[in-house]
Amino acid sequence: MKNQLLISLVAALSLSAQADEGWQTWFKDGLGDAKIVSGQATYTVENGILTGTTVEGSGNTFLAKGPFKDFELQFEVKVDNELNSGVQVRSKLAKDGDPAPEGAKGDKPLPAGRLYGPQCEIAINGTAGDFYDEARRGTWWSILTKTEAVRSDEAKAAFKKGEWNHYRIVVKGDHYQSFVNGVKTADFTQPGDPEGHIGFQVHGIKKGTGPYKVQWKEVKFKAL
């Protein structure tokens, strides 16, 4: 009996080790190698919780890591009702002398250091989990790729106001998927961004408002 219990325990530990293989946990003790770009919002880590706080007068700010190609990203997130946020994936940092990004609405170059590209939305207004083409096309990827059917009533209601919400984002090849609290909220293909940064956004705010915050915890990353 004892041998059977020992075998079962060893098997369980082996399966657990296999499940954890390849996963990195981000922001356990600090910001690590992540860099604040595009704005002046602040980011702190305390007790394993990453908190982004708005700064009046700042545009959208991002805590960026990467670049990365194929990956799975999971995290828990909570956002103030007055704020929306998001996580950039495969996004690019504009450099001095770069032309306007391909597909952008206008022909004006972005300022150096501006992060742009696909962003998985964090919001209480029914758009959570959809992807927005930040600082470039300025519209939703579900519209651009004609996958709006994924944005079902269940998907629009998946994000819970005032609570911690679980996100799972999978980007492999040209295929992008997101899940909010286990509900599929985006599923499309687009070939234009094969590699780029992951960026945790603190949105800019109107004058005379804030400060507001967005918090992430249990941030896990795995290259695919």
Structure report:
With 224 residues, this protein is mainly beta. Strands 1, 3, 4, 6, 10, 11, 12 and 14 form an eight-stranded antiparallel β-sheet that branches. A six-stranded antiparallel β-sheet has the order 2-5-13-7-8-9, with no helix packed on it. The chain has a single domain (24-223), classed as Exo-inulinase, domain 1 (Jelly Rolls), CATH 2.60.120. Residues 1-18 have low confidence and may be disordered. 12% of the residues lie in helices and 42% in strands. It starts with a helix and ends with a strand.
| CATH superfamily heading | Exo-inulinase, domain 1
- Overall shape: it is globular
| Total count of strands | 14
CATH architecture: Sandwich
Largest sheet: 8 strands, antiparallel
The averaged pLDDT comes out at 93
Structural class: mainly beta
Q: Tally the helices: what do you get?
A: 3
How much helix, percentage-wise, in residues? 10-25%
* Overall structural domain count: 1
- Measured distance between first and last alpha carbons: 40 Å
Q: What is the CA-based Rg, rounded?
A: 19 Å
The low-confidence runs, each spanning 5 or more residues with pLDDT under 50, are 1-18
Beta percentage is: 35-45%
Question: Within the CATH hierarchy, at the fold level, what is the topology?
Answer: Jelly Rolls
For this structure, what is the CATH class? Mainly Beta
Order of helices and strands: HEEEEEEEEEHHEEEEE
In short, what is this structure?
The protein has 224 residues and is mainly beta.
